[in-house]
Amino acid sequence: MHKLLNIPFLILTFSLIIGIVFGYYTSINLSLAIISQTIIVIGLAISWWHAKKTFRSSYTFSVFVIITFIFFGIILVQIHHPKNSSNHYTNLSPKEYHETPVTIRFYIKERLKPTSYYEKYIITVQSIENKNVTGNLLLQIPKNSIQQAFITGESYITYTQISPIPKPLNPNQFDYAHYLSKQYIFHKVTTDHSQLIHTNTSVFSIYRIAAFIRTDINQKLTNYHFNQKQLSIINALLLGQRQQIDNETFADYRDAGAIHILAVSGLHVGILLIILNLILKPLNRFRKNGKIIKTIIIILLLWCFAIMAGLSPSVLRAVTMFSFIAIGMHIRSKTSIYNALTVSMFILLCMRPLLLFSVGFQLSYLAVFTIVWIQPSFVKLYSPKFYIDRILWETFTVTIAAQLGLLPITLFYFHQFPLLFFIANLIIIPVLGIILGFGILVIVLAEVQILPNWIAASFGTCIDAMNTIVHWVSKQEDFLLTEIPFSWRMLVIGYILIISLIFMFKKFKPKSIIAVIVSIVFLLVNLIYEKQQNIEKEELIIFHNQRNTTLGILQNQYLTIYSKDSVSTISKKFLLNGYLIENNSRFTVNKKLNNIYNYKEKTILIIDSMGIYNIKKLHADVVILTNSPKIHLNRVIETLQPKQIIADGSNYKSYLDQWELTCTQKKVPFHRTDKKGAYIFK
Fold first, then answer.
1. What does pTM read for this prediction?
2. CA diameter of the chain
3. Residue 18: in which H helix or E strand, if any?
4. Could you say which architecture CATH assigns to the domain 539-681?
5. What CATH number labels 89-204?
6. In 3-state terms, what secondary structure has residue 166?
7. Helix (H) / strand (E) containing 158
8. DSSP classification of residue 88
């Protein structure tokens, strides 16, 4: 297998990624994939034997290796998919878990960030109607019924209905169901606290141990007069729990471009690695195995921190990545760090292939890779004379390198960019290591109950100062660019341009200049193409809005809204923001809803609660039913002879069910937005 070692591990990992993408977006049968993989492995063995026999390099062998890893990625996706397990709850008869309430026994796996209305948890199902099953569900508990947070690993029984997680009903809204499906969560249960029966049993796991450690730490910290905001930041920075952070603080960090500070991830683990490396540096003096012992201790301490921080996916990802980087630092070569990144990515994807589609996973690896690749070149541009200058310059170059590598993907996912991001990062990141070290010291002293009050107060003051800086930066609204349209084509071209610019910056050659020019030309052509596409796009939309009938007409990148009542600012953001960004359009005006519209040679009649529709000589192509009109739909169909009937979210569900049945009998197409989402006339 000597030839396999000549194939860069990066290519093998890239082949695995191709296989995972292919396996996710296609429905290849697992048995077929395994048979194909077996045939390919046989071909691989034959090509290796032939190359060994003839003493020649074989490109055929390399091709077979790449194809092997592609199919390995496909098989991984299928093997890890829980629905392929016969014990998964979705393989029960639908009536046993979906259409009626059932008795569910489960244990708490993870607490999620709550919404305005619900506390949310991920739960692992143990049995349904006394049938042993597997699988995870989303548990929602109304806030007015919840008494206290549940402990990870605790087991409960409830009697409720398992229902699908709703998909977005308006165009370009965040698809929470799709997001959870990548974590193999496909359904939810909603129940009051009073309907949960504790079984007095628990499931032993390392997650439960981590939860007890965090609970104990929080109980000890409450004795030292930390206010709620300070405790929420401590939990986020050191314990990996952001659930207690209030919306205002979260928005401040997001708008300041410092949200990564609140999530225990690569930044925190990387800083911790640097701190541990400095503290344990004296071990290097031992000639025999000193460096190896130091590396082992660092890795053990990193994983202890991971357990304390709750072993969330982002923490596991970061600690795995930096464990390999610690090994790479021991080897002391730049190539070894690249290899460490690649190996850690390969292992993580083998364990959880759908991590590839996690935004956090993508951001972490891109940030670290660009820092390792670009920052050394940036830092050479200036040679500071003083220690503080050097720290600030290195922090600035790290921040610029990371932001440059993340710019296209952050615009693609979040459609905003804080121009003052470097101010918050330049001030906070150099002292974040001190805050983390200080915080760990505070936690250790609090745990052994010897924490002086003045140290606790000093740490609280540091957190308040950090919050104040972030709040000030976030309020400089003129420097926060929002609602930036950025398509997948722009994402690809953006990275091609950035890579070309970096190569030109590193080595000023004619080829690199040509690559930059070609990238810019592609960027301009794509901008013109997308601009023209958006200008030509015209459509009428009946939005799903439960409280207010809302109709929109898009023309020349301007959206006009017609509604029964004026649309509130919150409703506009919820209904329209994603749609406007996707179409690079602007909201113009909110007009009063009429009863009749003519659009592209179609007559659209809106029948509201007044139920008036019998207008002489009127033929309606489309009828929109709103606000639960008391009408006889058979008569409406006979009188108006519509080709399409639409009922929006302002109608009673009982009315919708009856109208749907009537339209089915009359063979008239019926669209209800509460099930099918917004209706769009192209």
1. 0.84
2. 100
3. helix 9-25
4. 4-Layer Sandwich (3.60)
5. 2.40.50
6. coil
7. strand 154-160
8. B
